[in-house]
Design goal:
Blueprint (H helix, E strand, L loop, with lengths): L5 H20 L3 E2 L2 E2 L5 E2 L2 E2 L11 E5 L2 E5 L40 H16 L8
Antiparallel strand pairs: 1-4, 2-3, 5-6
Helix pairs in contact: 1-2
């Protein structure tokens, strides 16, 4: 009844679950900022490569951000006013853009999950392009 597609289906489901677990395990994003010298520092996802796995919180001060595990040291990034990168002449600021538009690239969570769902549908339907 299941035929040869059953092991592939199990593999896809297990992979899907691992992706979900990995997404939930990722930490906070430390937004880009201007340091005390005025230099722009790019934002990053916690934990970074050099951090411990439990360093999932953006910590520090508005002028110096890092990943840590302590909720007591968590940086309230909403209170920082040095996280706006200077606009180049002739470019549109993000405030002027349509704020209702959702930006989704090929690596977005929605695109990845849609691709996984499409793959699961194809495997569970026996590889046929249409549902039976």
């Amino acid at each position: 009844m299941w035929g040869g597609g059953f092991p592939a289906s199990v593999t896809v489901v297990v992979t899907f679950l691992l992706v979900i677990i990995d997404v939930k395990a990722s930490g906070e994003y430390c937004h880009g900022w201007h340091d005390s010298q005025g230099a722009w520092k790019e934002g990053f996802q916690c934990p970074e490569k050099i951090d411990a796995d439990d360093s999932i919180i953006c910590c520090g001060k508005c002028e110096l951000r890092y990943c840590c595990a302590s909720t007591d040291a968590r940086l309230d990034q909403g209170s920082c006013d040095n996280d706006q990168q200077a606009q180049e002449p002739g470019t549109e600021s993000k405030d002027n853009k349509d704020s209702g538009a959702v930006q989704e690239g090929p690596g977005s969570d929605h695109a990845v999950l849609t691709g996984i769902k499409f793959g699961l549908d194809r495997i569970l339907d026996g590889g046929s392009p249409q549902r039976r």
